[in-house]
Amino acid sequence: MADFLQQKIPIAQAIDAIVDWLTEHLSVFFNLLQTIGQSVMDVLSNTLAAIPPILLILLVTLAAYFVFNKKWQMPVFVLLGLVLIYNQGMWDDLMYTLTLVIVSSFIAIAVGVPVGILMAKSDKAQVVIKPILDVMQTMPSFVYLIPAVAFFGIGIVPGTVASVIFALPPTVRLTNLGIRQVDTELKEASDSLGGTAMQKLSKVELPLAKGNIFAGINQTTMMVLSMVVIASMIGTPGLGQGVLAAVQRSQIGSGFIYGIGVVILAIMMDRFTQSLNKNRGKSQNEIKPVSKKRKVFIGGLTAAVLVVLAIIGGVSQGSSNKGAITLAYAEQDDQVASTTVAAQVLEEEGYNVTMTALDIPVTFEAVANGQADAMLGAWLPTTHEANYEQLGDQLDNLGPSLDKQAQNGLVVPSYMDVDSIEDLTDEADQTITGVEPGAGNTAAAKATLEAYPNLADWDLATSSAGAMTTQLERAMSQEEEVVVSAWSPHWIFSRYDVKFLEDPEGGMGGAESIVTLARLGLEDDMPEAYQILDNFEWEVEDIESVMLEMEEGDAPEEAAQHWIDNNPEKVEEWVE
């Protein structure tokens, strides 16, 4: 009996099989949804981006003035908050995030209210739907990213899908609760007067449940915003990517600024959605009905504005010179540096370049599936070997940008009296500070622990690239012992007096190349861009100089442009 209970039920395998079946047999349907969704998102985000920021700030501030009964507090907050976001260079990110919030909230409300009505009208439906909502609300939000990527790839569409699923339950639950709490006598009065079920719903139940419904809408909007940072892990653009990049690089100031941007947007959305229920607490006699003519006028004006903005968005979407190209990368300093430099060069040659930050496995999948055009951060033959073996036949290998000059290893300050991994005994509390759990560098560090008998009692503390460098800096400032799992090229070798430990067992792997991979067909679609990426090649000193400027506070774009300005001959070789 005990042996039977220890046999795992193949739940994970069954779910994988279901997802694989859906991906294979419904790929056309998912691609259609992805195309439609992306088009809608592009039009909306481009529409918002096409409006001059100062004009949009003034319009939102003016709207806040009238929405909040001509009181000055909220309009002043809106004005100062949006001006701060614009001043900090986060305006484009704000527009993407606002697009995600608007579309996700609209879909969640459009689905949630009818489902909530169904639950209120049918006890059987409530019995079925309620446990589903329980699962949706308690499931870790990261889990929603997995099927979203499998079905829709990367970008803002899967981010929207994950946000809708995560944020749907409050609207459903509170709509159901609000209708069920309507006084039974009022429902019976409607029935006795000959009202139909639809009339009872629209004239009695929904108006009286309005407070609960709008409370659910408010919570749904806030939950969508809470997914902003999480969705950035699958390439959803916006403020979340800034937060994620700051966390992974341990940039406290930058993370705080992007966090403030999210807070400002959250407060604005919260107050505006609450204002939709501004008649709560008033009796029916106190509520002034809107005349039919005014409704027609407002509806017509709104429709006209939407049409004009849609035209603006469509025109903005179609405007590019030589075409649009997407470069995928992981939020690691070496990949940020090389990808930003390549993007700047491509833009100077007339391309509209989008940089999309992803986890390493998703980066490979995005290029293999054609959702990204290229990546410049594949470490081969060892670090990313598993990813390349799985998807290599779907990728175009353009060769190394850094040829056999990359290296993983255990790094210590030069003042530590150890030169080889074999020399380690009880240093640094027998702990190696590593990076992300899923990184190739972490896998190499785990292999190293197994390869050396003297490391049998050692632990690998996984964290992030930013946390690893922070721990190194902190220990060196106090001349303490520290062992980190790092790699070259990295700015720490330009900033600190550190050294690689010799690795006679080869646990961390040997010399590697950083390779550029492109999607199949890029050479035919964009031969000039393909040639630039194919020619892209530089030295360790080049990439580390860009990385060091980034670490010292320059924006990646600024650091990349400085290098381009100082190395015109090398750039000329790429664009020939």
Question: Topology, please?
Answer:
Elements (H helix, E strand, L loop, with lengths): L1 H5 L4 H15 L1 H24 L2 H15 L5 H15 L3 H31 L1 H16 L6 H8 L3 H25 L3 H9 L4 H12 L1 H17 L1 H4 L7 H11 L2 H24 L16 H27 L5 E6 L3 H16 L3 E6 L2 H9 L5 E7 L4 H7 L3 E19 L17 E3 L6 H12 L7 E3 L3 H13 L5 E6 L3 H4 L2 E3 L11 E8 L2 H4 L1 H9 L4 H12 L4 H11 L1 H8 L1
Parallel strand pairs: 1-2, 1-3, 5-6, 5-7
Antiparallel strand pairs: 3-9, 4-7, 4-8, 4-9
Helix pairs in contact: 3-6, 3-16, 4-5, 5-15, 6-7, 6-9, 6-12, 6-14, 7-9, 8-9, 9-12, 10-11, 12-15, 14-15, 14-21, 17-25, 17-26, 25-26
Describe this structure in words.
The chain is α/β, with parallel strands linked by helices. The chain has four domains: 51-88, no CATH class; 98-278, MetI-like fold, CATH 1.10.3720; 324-404 and 512-575, D-Maltodextrin-Binding Protein, domain 2, CATH 3.40.190.10; 406-500, 3-Layer(aba) Sandwich (D-Maltodextrin-Binding Protein, domain 2). The chain has 27 helices and nine strands. It has helices at 2-6, 11-25, 27-50, 53-67, 73-87, 91-121, 123-138, 145-152, 156-180, 184-192, 197-208, 210-226, 228-231, 239-249, 252-275, 292-318, 333-348, 360-368, 385-391, 440-451, 465-477, 492-495, 522-525, 527-535, 540-551, 556-566, 568-575, and strands spanning 324-329, 352-357, 374-380, 395-413, 431-433, 459-461, 483-488, 498-500, 512-519. Strands 1, 2, 3, 4, 5, 6, 7, 8 and 9 form a nine-stranded mixed β-sheet that branches. It starts with a helix and ends with a helix. Residues 94-273 form the ABC transmembrane type-1 domain.
